[in-house]
Fold this sequence. Notes:
Layout: E1 4-15, E2 18-29, E3 33-38, H1 44-51, E4 59-64, E5 67-68, H2 74-79, E6 82-85, H3 97-101, E7 110-111, E8 114-115, H4 117-130, H5 147-160, E9 165-169, H6 177-192, E10 196-200, H7 204-210, E11 213-218, E12 221-227, H8 233-241, E13 261-270, E14 277-282, E15 286-291, H9 297-304, E16 310-317, E17 320-321, H10 325-330, E18 333-336, H11 340-343, H12 351-356, H13 359-367, H14 372-385, H15 402-414, E19 420-424, H16 432-447, E20 451-455, H17 459-465, E21 468-473, E22 476-482, H18 489-496
Parallel strand pairs: 3-10, 3-11, 6-9, 9-10, 15-20, 15-21, 18-19, 19-20
Antiparallel strand pairs: 1-2, 1-4, 4-5, 7-8, 11-12, 13-14, 13-16, 16-17, 21-22
Amino acid sequence: MxxxxxxxxxxxxxxxxxxxxxxxxxAVERGYVxxxxxxxxxxxxxxxxxxxxxxxxxxxxxxxxxxxxxxVSMLHAQEKHIGMIVxxxxxxxxxxxxxxxxxGHEKLFQKGLFVNKAAMEKAAQALLDKLEIxxxxxxxxxxxxxxxxxxxxxxxxxxxxxxxxxxxxxxxTALSYExxxxxxRVLKMMKEQNRSVLFISHDLDEMxxxxxxxxxxxxxxxxxxxxxxxxxxxxxxxxMVGRELQGNYYRNDMDPYEEEVxxxxxxxxxxxxxxxxxxxxxxxxxxxxxxxxxxxMHTLGRALFGVxxxxxxxVIAGGAKINSPKAAIARRIGYVSKNRDQESLGLSATIAExxxxxxxxxxxxxxxxxxxxxxxxxxxxxIESLSIKCAGKxxxxxxxxGGNKQKVxxxxxxxxxxxxxxxxxxxxxxxxxxKAAMYKLMYEMKKAGKSIVLISEELSELxxxxxxxxxxxxGKVTAERLRTEGLSEHDLINYMI
Length: 497
Ligand SMILES: Nc1ncnc2c1ncn2[C@@H]1O[C@H](COP(=O)(O)OP(=O)(O)OP(=O)(O)O)[C@@H](O)[C@H]1O
Ligand SMILES: [Mg+2]
């Protein structure tokens, strides 16, 4: 058995009335990738952030390298070689990549009163080169980069401090294919150097492949730990949710869609990514769109909702031109952004306010009056049907776990009578139970004659749910496939790369 790097013992954490962790104990050995898995709100981020010095435990003890461990801040932990890639976006947009990497450590480059930015940039660029990252440069402003690149910055930032323990909290779902490959290289490197990783993800296949050991949390309680030889998807899921789940969550019908076109992109060109792009969405259709991170699919979603400006061509829905989110909402179009914290949520507003905003209010306005009693009932229904884990609907959204925030965004649009939904990575960070519920909802919407554009980085999801799949590369469609029995991930990947 190899040396123990960190041990947490009988950790408790309360947030007011919410008990986030109850008596949690486990240890991570050197040279291991240790997985933490559990439903949304089960306590994964909380326990990780306690180890990484972001917040203290209510009670319990920790030991790191054989000594008691009571970090006072994230910087403290970093200096002691514990680094964490947090679930939520951790980069600051209006400063450079280099400044993000060395945030809090500017004194390294301080000369008198000034920070030598050129030296800082050089050091950051050297690090990027060493890790073979060519996607962006150290001098670029972080805000100009996409989500995947910003996540990569966070990984690099952690690696600079040569962590003995690297905590990766729900990072893979923010990455697409290339980013994930980079992350897996990092995991391998950590192991080879006899260092350890605490890895969190909702992707069960990924967890089983990359983790040497898996611990399951449920409602803040440690349910059990499995060795690699004991992995079995059904068993892990059962431990997570406390009951058996059916194996296949996707739809298994071959139901057609109608001929009527409800949303159309007519030779649209955007500032970046798309050049004379055509697309048609039909009534009752689930149109899947897949590709690598820069293929243009996220831009397409934004353009269809009127967030990204179309500089040539037109987006048309029901005869009307869609050139702003307001126009889109007026045509009963809903949009779930991949970048939920920045684009889809009011973080300092309450859960109820978020759910009842935009879609719901506008629909009620169509009918003339807003009934607050009805609104409250609607909010309750959404919290119930999406099983949003919260202490109450009047708590702020930023007290929710990552996956539960995502559910709030979905709740905002789903039952608000949107006729067309544009979903960009809607199941990102959502646990299996809720995923199954979401897929069921999507199918029900289709059956009710509503239409969905499903932009996703998960091929199995695209194949499992779509009536038709478009694969994009460099802003163009490279393959179009109808729903058939034999459609394989392999076939689609070939058109992405
Ligand atoms: N600052 C906070 N204030 C109040 N409650 C909180 C706070 N942070 C976390 N919680 C609660 O603690 C519980 C555990 O949350 P945590 O973020 O650890 O879950 P998680 O397992 O990481 O979930 P996910 O998979 O959705 O990211 C949740 O019920 C959450 O609402
Ligand atoms: Mg979390």
